[in-house]
Every structure is written in C-alpha cells, then in structure tokens.
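Record type: monomer structure entry
Structure origin: computed from sequence
Chain ID: A
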Amino acid sequence: MTFTVLYDANVLYPNVLRDVLIRLAQTGLVHARWTDRILDEMFENSGEDRPDIPAAALAKLRELMNRAVPDCLVTGYERLIPALTLPDEDDRHVLAAAIRSGAQVIVTANLRDFPDSELAQFGIEAKHPDEFVMDLFHLDGVRVHQAVSATAAAWRNPPGTPADVCDRLVAAGLPISAAASGADAE
C-alpha cells in the first residue's frame, strides 16, 4: 500500500539523499510530493553553496526530478498558508502542501519547526529522513536495498558501490538507515 509523503527542501538538497529518496518513490513504496516553492528553496541554496554549478545544470536537474516521480508537484496549496501556525512562518507552505496533497508524512531534517501539536490536527507527522528510511526498511527492506543499489549503479565517474552510497548517507545524517541498508548491500 503506497502512502503519500512530502519531501522538504532540506532532504532534497544533499545529492545522494535526494537520489535515494526519489528512487524509493520509484519503487512504489511511497508517493513522493513536493512543490515548485520547495524546489526553489532547494535550488537557491544549491546555487549559493555551489556557484560553480551552471544554472542550466540546475534547471536540468529540476526537470529530471519532476519527471522521475509521476504527479510529484503539489499545486493549489497557497490559500491554506495564512491559516496555519508553525514556529517558523516560512515553513507554513510545506505544511500547506502536505495538507493539500493528503500526505501522511513530511520528511524533514528540521523537526523542531514541525511540532506534533500543530501537525496532528491534520493527520500528518514530521519524520527525520533517517527514521523515514528505517520505516520503509522495516516495511520492505528489499526495495530499500534496490533504491540504494540503483543509486550506486547510476554513479559513473567515479563508479560507486552500495557501500559508497551508505557512506554518503551517514554523512547526510542517516547513520541508522545507512547501517541497515548497507548490511547486505554488497
């Protein structure tokens, strides 16, 4: 049974984590969603942190992301924003998109700005990506391994292994998921 999740900009920013999260959506375990505004935030941060990456390359990545996951873009959520309360007003658009898309989970590394007390009324919970991937691992570890292996298989220069992907997941703040996903990765 597929459930809907909304990926926040901070989990789409790290390359390997983004790749694994998108590949997890492609396995059919989840229906991943995001908005143009979430992507704007992600790409703005990418451009600031990596000015050496051409704007055309970032635009191509955006296009590839949107093509990789059918029906990923949430629209029509904007009118909900003013009625929502969160510790950081700049995060209300994320909750609004989650509500609009029927998401059960917001995957974010920024849990303090998505308190249970505000999300519970909408039947939504915020999960750190490490907890989220572990939930999927317990649901269907084979498909999680497939997503990690597919990420490694896509690396060309230099080529990568599932263990390399897991090392990068640890660096992205997912030590538990990386350990579980890498246990039988090679």
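Annotation 1: The chain has two domains: 3-129, 132-182.
Annotation 2: The CA atoms of residues 4 and 90 lie 22 Å apart.
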